[in-house]
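User: Sequence for pyridoxal 5'-phosphate synthase below. Tokens please.
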Amino acid sequence: MDIGGIRIPYKTRANAFLEDSIAVKDPIKLFDQWFQEARNTQELIEPNAMCLSTATRDGIPSARFVLCKGYGEDGFQFYTHYTSRKGRELEENPNVALTFYWNALNRSVRIEGTASKLPMSFADDYFKSRPHASQIGALCSDQSELVESRDKLVEFADELRNKYESGEVPKPPHWGGYTVVPKSIEFWQGQNDRIHDRIKFRQAHNDEIPDSLLTHKGVGNWIYERLQP
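Assistant: Structure tokens for pyridoxal 5'-phosphate synthase:
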């Protein structure tokens, strides 16, 4: 089926985007500004949903959506089963990519970096704060493993619900958190004229000096540059 004609006009926001990017010069602060706007946009149900792309030791990629559970100067956090496919791939190859897409704002953020496990105390505290249904869901699933049928999963979940009341569900032993420390963060703003805005922040190479024409000094060790769409 040819779907090449599907196209939605974007809002024109070029001036505001350019000014925001140059003024902030800090990708984490700029991400926070964008995220707070996405969070306050009614059409976006899960603004913290992000596509997590991993790869095996041999470079075979896979991608799936997870929920970002924290961000800041230390990185971007999420939680999962260490024994899942993504957990196994992260063990082999910690290089990852994250992508946020906020269609109502015509914005996307791409992050590339390195993932490492968070202290287990973080996972313990976060697991206790999760809704009862989410706790049961994590405990009943041996994520990414084969299962005979959905009925088997539902039956096991019912057993766990009968066994554990809210606040009593134990955290699965191989369930924990990761933080992705970014090496680059790219901000994309769709434009109605299709000349989209792309501003990329990246960590400076050794002794790199920005030329203030194509490369510009950001905060700390960050350099930012405009990419052609």
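The chain has six helices and ten strands.
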